[in-house]
Fold this sequence. Notes:
This protein has helices spanning 101-105, 113-122, 144-147, 149-160, 177-184, 200-206, 213-225, 246-256, 272-283, 288-298, 317-333; strands at 31-33, 49-52, 59-61, 71-73, 76-77, 106-109, 131-133, 164-168, 189-194, 230-237, 260-265.
Amino acid sequence: MTDSSKPIRGRGSVDNPTGRFERFLYDHDGSFVQEDPDADAGAPRPQTEYFRDHTRGIIARNDSPDVGFDASVNPYRGCLHGCCYCFARPTHEYLGLSAGMDFETKIFVKDDAPALLRAELEKPAWRPTPLGLSGVTDPYQPIERKLEVTRRCLAVMVEFRQPVLVITKNHLVTRDVDHLAELARHNAAAVYLSITTLDATLARKMEPRTSSPAKRLEAIEVLSRAGIPCGVLVAPVVPGLTDHEMPKILEAAANAGAKGAGYVILRLPHGLKELFEGWLDAHEPEKKEKVLSRVRALSEGKLYNSQWSKRQTGTGVFAEQVAQMFRVACARHGLNLERASVSGAAFRRPPRAGDQGDLFA
């Protein structure tokens, strides 16, 4: 943590600590794009850099019982959104980089993701399990407006009618309403907008380059009108800072057209603990001790409990209060009456160029 822990305009981090691993594990061929597409005029350094990620595989697997899908596609590593609490930050340390400022200024782009995805879906062994988009960083961070990696992946999914679950904080998802609506016609798409707070000022400090809360609610409305099943994730619930907003968030999302809802308690794995403490020092110093004491109360006296079934919801009296508040608000606003589920029943493999297939099928 820096000694001053001063806020940096447009950034969620206030520090750039050394990662857990000494070895630099990533070999890139140079800068891909050197610009910050959403920077405000006069925004201070550090500048954002983008690098090509020459990954050979695009579908990531997980065996976590508390995650809603076991396969996902992540078009990007790192995220310009800069959310101060992002549990994905420590993944940048596997690249020999920092979970702090590096995570939001050194972003790796999987430009080959659509081709890699097509190759996976064409394999006879592939079974159309729902794909999460994304499982780690946001698929609709600002550079997606220019590069369209996520949109191109969705185009491949439309061809195959591959089921997908989209999770995002960005209104940009409405750009792809055409692809998502086509998948939804086959019960093969659902979108969840993540909303942490309805306070635009607080959101700008916590999630500096995400869409505003109002724009996220507007995205739910646009997608719902297009016939795309939508939900809201109150994620993360920051105890002592945003937990009291849960009922209002659920009400606003239901009014916008959301049918499903979920929530996730703040998670602080690895060095994210120190990074989040630094953010509290810089932005909410008067609430720091209250927030951290509540986090410990939810995590059996620690700042993070990694146990499955506990890490998402917490334990203890306060966790029970949050769960009860969630259940009551959902019942009041008609959320989760029918769980949005996506299906691979319509999955198909379109014939490849030059492949006549079975003419008499």
